[in-house]
Amino acid sequence: MNVTRNVFREDHEMYRETVRRFLEKECLPRQAAWDAAGQVDRETWRKAGREGLLCASLPEEYGGGGGDFGHAAVFAEETARSGVSGPAFGMHSDIIAPYIHRAGNDEQKKKWLPGAASGELILAIAMTEPGTGSDLKAVRTTAVREGDEYVINGSKTFISNGLIADLIIVVCKTDPAAGAKGISLIAVEATRAGFRRGRKLQKVGQFAQDTAELFFDNVRVPVGNRLGEEGKGFAYLMGELPQERFSIAVAAAARLERALETTIDYVKDRRVFGQTVWDFQNTKFKLADIKAQAVAVRTMVDYYLAEHMRRRLTLEEAAIAKLFSTETLGKAIDEMVQLHGGYGYMLEYPIARDFVDMRVTRIYGGTSEVMRELISRKL
After folding, report:
1. Is 305:76 a contact under the CB 8 Å cutoff?
2. What is the pLDDT along the chain (379 residues), one digit of tens a residue?
3. Are 140 and 154 in contact (CB under 8 A)?
């Protein structure tokens, strides 16, 4: 992309080769089967754990790889470039596990993180509710304390890993009258009585990602399952959401580069009216615009990546990265689908999978509208 990248160390690049081999050997051959099943098989999760690809940035004492966010970024980039869709390894390792690591006590870390790193314990986080999207302060799921237990009631939707998760971090109200200060994070094992998984939701894309509804009907969990202090859940969420949003930006940058490469290959090969699609000036100009946009996204993302590896990335900067990268990706993909003609609408072509798989990047992790609101607060 004509951008010199200095953000990664040698150990990051060695890790990249391991990730790339795993995706090519263990994931791409299974993509069609995962799409048909609507979820990823658990053995692939365990294989990822054995290869050291899960929770790579967590400390070794809890089963992690002892790395940093650079390793998480490498994984996000390689997954995006491969076109693999379904395994929510990044969300599991770099979004959910950090809640346990940063908010949990030592007993909780020793209890749950080694299994998360090995792939034996699959994680999910339950934020969104049927009537509550990006406004987390408005969640209605309650956790009422009764002695040494919490009794949880409510429902969640759009939960990634919802069908296969063994442990769900539930965002709930322990004090409904306190607004954001009444939110707590409570870990719920999927074996708990009263916990029920709903239907697998039929999405436009990302067919292999098991996104589901979850229901909690008088689910009793020990107080020891609460992460951190009661009423501090919203603060914990705000502390981790910048990384979640930035991870989406990292993947978007890599996916944009991949889409551009595959589109250039296609238009230089496809012939129409006696010449290649590339030979039309309109094609060159469209792709020149997208190349410039891709370079701009890459430059911005790498700058913020270096900042985040120093733990200096702010909420506003993460919002800028997510907004610009995902909006640019979406508009560019639409242009590149058009350059494919009818074939751009066929799922056997990578650009069509990009079209359906990537549309949600402007929604999950906080919508583009929420990103604009966060950015505007600093204007």
Report:
1. no
2. 678 899 999 999 999 999 999 999 999 999 999 999 999 999 999 999 999 999 999 999 999 999 999 999 999 999 999 999 999 999 999 999 999 999 999 999 999 999 999 999 999 999 999 877 667 788 999 999 999 999 999 999 999 999 999 999 999 999 999 989 999 999 999 999 999 999 899 999 999 999 999 999 999 999 999 999 999 999 999 888 899 999 999 999 999 999 999 999 999 999 999 999 999 999 999 999 999 999 999 999 999 999 999 999 999 999 999 999 999 999 999 999 999 999 999 999 999 999 999 999 999 999 999 999 999 999 9
3. yes
DSSP state of 177: G
Distance CA 334, CA 323 (A): 17
3-state secondary structure (DSSP) of residue 86: coil
8 A C-beta contact, residue 158 and residue 201: yes
Question: Tokens for 11?
Answer: 């150990």
Angle between helix 233-269 and helix 350-357 axes, rounded to 10 deg: 160
Burial 169-196 (b: 16+ CB within 10 A, else e): bbbbbbbeeeeeebbbbbbbebeeeebe
- Which residue in 244, 316, 335, 369 is the catalytic one? 244
CB 298 within 8 A of CB 6: no
CA distance 328 to 322: 10
For residue 127, give the nearest of 107, 89, 99 by alpha carbon. 99
244 as an active site residue: the answer is yes
CA distance 5 to 13: 12
Q: Which phi-psi region, left, alpha or beta, contains residue 206 (left: φ > 0; alpha: ψ -120 to 50)?
A: left
Cα 270 from Cα 254, distance rounded (Å): 24
- What DSSP assignment string belongs to 23-54? IIIIIGGGHHHHHHHTS--HHHHHHHHHTT-S
- CA 292 to the chain's CA centroid: 26
> Model pTM?
0.94
